[in-house]
Amino acid sequence: MKGRMISPGKTKGEALVSRNPMSFYGGIDPKTGIVIEKGHELEGSCVKGKILVFPKGKGSTVGSYVIYGLKKNGVAPAAILNKETETIVATGVILAGIPCVDSLEIEKLKTGDKLVVDADNATVATE
Q: What is the pLDDT of residues 34-54, one digit of tens each?
């Protein structure tokens, strides 16, 4: 898949996919990387080392700092893939140095897929 680079970098890993938008502020514990948003389809899942796939972010701009906090605490996702990366997620991944690609057909991805992310070239491939 070809998309648009938001934050550079290359990585590979297992996809953790949500069909719903994600909130980082109040939605993910910055100390553990566990999704804590009540009722979210990923509630209880850990984002650490995963290729986190979701349509777009939602919620407070403080979410950018939560993404940065995830990285500082060693529990950040390896990469983030979106249909549309809005400013909260874009600012967070750039601050944290997390590879991020958007403008992707994320509907084609499912949790457990092994992905190769080359954000430098805005590509995502299955392994």
A: 999 999 999 999 999 999 999
Q: Structure pTM?
A: 0.97
- Catalytic residue list: 60
Span between the terminal Cα atoms of the chain, in Å? 12
Low-confidence ranges of the chain (pLDDT < 50): none
Residue 9 lies in domain: 4-126
Tally of domains in the chain: 1
Comparing C-alpha atoms, which of 1, 8, 18 is closest to residue 90?
A: 8
CA pair distance 29, 33, nearest whole angstrom:
5
CATH of the domain at 121: 3.50.30.10
